[in-house]
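Notebook entry, structure prediction.
Reason for the run: the old model in the group folder had no record of what sequence produced it. Starting over properly, with the input documented here first.
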Amino acid sequence: MTLKLLLAEDDQQLREVLVEALSLESFEVTACTSAEDALDAAANQHFDLALFDVVMSGMTGIEALTTLRRHHPNIGIIITTAFATVDVAVDAMKKGADEFLTKPFNLAALSVTLMRVHAERSPKSVLDERNNDLIFSALSNPIRRSVVKQLKIHRKMKFMDLCRVVGIEDHTKFNFHLRQLVNSGLVCKGEGRVYSLTETGLQVHSGMLQ
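New structure, fully documented this time:
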């Protein structure tokens, strides 16, 4: 997936380095030398992310935040500066910045930060919310949480073996719980009633441990 990034940086050398590095990371970068030029670009096209320096000739990156957010309510905004103070960071966050980075920053870490901010800013679809509700409901029961833990340990298990390790003698009751896990997308059922965790199930299990 290519994300459209609006860059406002008046340091030519850093601007060129950022454009080259982020382009290699599959970002489509529109580079500007001032906040004013960046806002003009934002008024005419869509951007997923913005990377603005604080100190530039003319309008500062922080001063541009309100207008930028008005053009693109869901845009992820990262502010950068070589002169970081707590007051500047707080001001940036209050005016709509999602992240505040102090120069010099690691380019690899910058790419990860951009992707994280975009993921956090992306509107969740109705389907995503429904899936999250199903997962939450599935994990609200201790029997089903135990099934997820056992499948993480054993990877694949037959129905009867799962009954035994989870400690449920009522097979009808246990089958109901397994159906809930399958319907939520956490567990998949294979041939011979062999059960295993899906990729989502593995990720959710990791979250349960945190």
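Summary: The chain has ten helices and eight strands.
The old model has been moved to the deprecated folder.
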